[in-house]
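Provenance and format

Records in this collection were gathered into a single text stream. Each protein contributes a sequence line and a token line. The two records reproduced below are adjacent in the stream.
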Amino acid sequence: MRLRLTSLFILLLASQLYGGFFSDLFESLTHQNRASEDVRVQEEPRQIERQEPVIQPQKVFEEDDTSSEADENEHTTSQRQLFLQYETYPKRLYLNQHFVIGLKAIVVANHIKKFQTHFLGGEGIKIINPNPQWKQIDDHTYQTKIYFKAINRQAKLPTIKVIAGNDENRYQEKIAPKPIKLIALKENPLFSHVIANDLQILSHKEKRYDNQSILVLMEINATLSNLEDFHLTSVQREALDDFEEHLTYQKVYYVSVVPRYQKIFKFKYFNLHTNRFHKVSFPIILEDATLSTQLGLNPKKSKFFLYKVIALLLLALFFALLYWRYKNFLFLILALLILGYTVVTKIFTPHITIPKGVNIRILPTHNSTVFFKTAKPLEAKVLLHKEGYRKIILPSGKIGWIKDDDLTKN
């Protein structure tokens, strides 16, 4: 009995001891498991949040950056196929001066066939050749020259825009103007208002105009000049006739009336090479000659006219040879057109009948001196038609001007 009670007591004591230990152990393990589960639940979202925002946006940025760079390179390439550069550019200009700007274009693309030149903005500037011709220097280099005239004190050169194209693409570029200094020359009674690289009097003649005056005729040639502005304040009357203008040179006939007592005709022009005024003079010598000799303004006797005729005939011959070589009728048509134009406008002289009582003037102006009046109808050759007047050659060889309205007289 005592042994059984002792065994029961020991068993009870052991159950209490071990039961508390295992209970604590079980609770501890349970708590750790729950904590571990909590940790796993919290860590899984953190891994998703850490990976997705970091990796995915980086891929999108690289794709956008690559695409942006590709677009930018394509845009830059299309815009920078053409490069412009000034080769010659004046630093100083004079009012009313003709001047030239040299422009070079470098085109990366090949087989450029056409250039277009546009002028943006600018003020007080006259563009003498608004459609300049471009000359190819090598495979990618082209040059042109643009001629301007500064016409007022506020002159400002324009921005030049160039478009170059081939069969597939067109490329464009702009070049801004450079600052220039504009100078107005001082007025002088002898200053002809001409600014030129060079000026020469090819010929001159003098004749009695009336009892108090002398008529002076000059044939003037100048290079890169504003010869159209030739004007002297020291003469009584003046006029320009048969003005010819080219890019590099100009020619004009200048007629003036001076006092009879004047023995020397003189004037000045401004030379651009020396930057000084150059004086031009010659003695006035009256000649007893007909008016036709004094006013030898027949353009068809000018050497420049002869050069034009020869050039046109050579051009017609060139196209004729091309037709003979390639048997292309287009060349034959061009040759015939040039030949016909030369014959009709340069060689053939139209005839008119001048009615009775028509005044024939020295110059194509209303106030010009009348040197001859027709007493009967006369046949005459027409040399030039200008602003309501016709330059004619009379049967006697005299040259003068008549009004278009006078031809309708009965």
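Adjacent record:
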Amino acid sequence: MLAFVGLFIVTSWSLVKQDILGLIWPSLHGPLPLTDPFKILANISAIALIFGTWVL
């Protein structure tokens, strides 16, 4: 369940940052570095989702 919450947070932030704020500041529209906190949360949530699916 926490994996879905984490992925929802990351997806919502990506929508706001890249699609809404990216229209105002074009430099925000691009790939995230691996050290970005939201990228780390996305990777951890994705691993948790895959692990949870595997356990079932």
